[in-house]
Specification:
It holds the Pfam family RRM_1. The protein is of the alpha+beta class and 140 residues long. The protein folds into two domains: 43 residues, no CATH class; 75 residues, Alpha-Beta Plaits (2-Layer Sandwich), CATH 3.30.70. The chain has three helices and nine strands. The longest helix is centred in the last third of the chain and has 11 residues.
C-alpha cells in the first residue's frame, strides 16, 4: 500500500483508493526535482503574550535560529496563537521539536511539528466516506 501511495503522490494524477468504508481521492502535482531539507518548525498553542523575541529566546539553545514569525489577527492585532521558527540546520530543528513539543511556554503547552511549505498546486488528499447507510436504507 505504501509503494502504491508513493507512486500516486509522485506523479500528476487524480485517482481514488478504495476501502470498504472510506475512499481517498488524491490530487497531486509532480515532486520538485531537488528535495529540500525541513528546518522550519510550526509552533502552535502560543500564549497571546508571546512575542517574536521570547519565542526566539526559547529556541536558541537548540541551535542557530535564522527567523521567527508569529502570525497576528488583522483586525485585533492579537496573536493567532501560532508561529514558525526557522533553524539553520535540520538536525537542530529536529532536536528542538523533540525537546519542546508538549512543554509549556508562558503557561501554555506548545504543539510543535515540522512546517509544510505553502505551495499552490501541491498534494491534496480529500477523504470521502462511501458505503455508509444514511438511516433510510440507502448507501452512498
Amino acid at each position: 500500500m505504501r509503494n502504491a501511495l508513493k507512486r500516486i503522490l509522485f506523479t500528476r494524477a487524480s485517482t481514488t483508493i478504495q476501502n470498504p468504508t472510506l475512499s481517498w481521492r488524491c490530487y497531486c502535482s509532480p515532486r520538485s526535482p531537488s528535495p529540500t531539507t525541513n528546518s522550519k518548525l510550526f509552533v502552535g498553542g502560543l500564549s497571546w503574550s508571546v512575542d517574536e523575541k521570547s519565542l526566539k529566546d526559547a529556541f536558541t539553545s537548540f541551535g542557530e535560529v535564522t527567523e521567527v514569525k508569529i502570525l497576528y489577527d488583522k483586525d485585533s492585532g492579537r496573536s493567532r496563537g501560532f508561529g514558525f521558527v526557522h533553524f539553520s540546520k535540520e538536525s537542530d530543528a529536529e532536536c528542538a521539536k523533540d525537546a519542546m513539543d508538549g512543554k509549556a511556554l508562558m503557561g501554555r503547552p506548545l504543539r510543535i511539528s515540522f512546517a509544510l511549505d505553502k505551495v499552490r498546486g501541491g498534494p491534496l488528499v480529500v477523504p470521502r466516506v462511501t458505503n455508509v447507510e444514511d438511516g433510510g436504507g440507502h448507501y452512498s
